[in-house]
Amino acid sequence: MSKSFEGYVSSRSSLQSVSSAACLNVTAALGIIAALDFEIVGEITDIETIASGAGIRDRARLRKQYGRGRWRKSKGVARVRLLDGTIRLAEVHWYEAHGVGKKEFKLKLPFLDRP
């Protein structure tokens, strides 16, 4: 596709396989958000906290789904393996809380490296 999209690509927790063509169709239809599986390869670097406490909009949902904790939204840079097997450098966002761990990883587009 020649058009570039900015937004998030979510990592689904299920192990269902989705074709790349189906993901591209979802991306084209939504324009910003697409459901796409990815795997983090290696470690996350340049970690920063984006928001914490009341600054997190989804705090009530996170507590309900994962339990109480000091929730923080963080970002970092990592190599990720996409569905088609390519490995790209991307900015990764996630939520985390002490005692709960890291949850709901998302990719921030565009990718940081050139293909």
Keywords, please?
115 residues; alpha+beta; 17% helix
What topology emerges from the helices and strands here?
Elements: E1 7-10, H1 20-30, E2 34-35, E3 38-52, H2 59-66, E4 72-82, E5 87-97, E6 101-109
Parallel strand pairs: 1-2
Antiparallel strand pairs: 1-6, 3-4, 4-5, 5-6
Number of helices: 2
What is the general shape?
elongated
Order of helices and strands: EHEEHEEE
User: Spatial order of the strands in the main sheet?
Assistant: 2-1-6-5-4-3
Unreliable runs: 1-8, 12-35
The average pLDDT score comes to: 77
Largest sheet: 6 strands, mixed
Q: Label the structural class.
A: alpha+beta
Number of DSSP strands?
6
Strand content: over 45%
Helix content: 10-25%
How many individual domains?
1
Radius of gyration: 15 Å
Head-to-tail CA distance between termini: 14 Å
Structure write-up:
The chain is α+β, with helices and mostly antiparallel strands and 115 residues long. The chain has one domain. Helices cover 17% and strands 45% of the residues. Strands 2-1-6-5-4-3 form a 6-stranded mixed beta sheet. The N terminus is likely disordered.
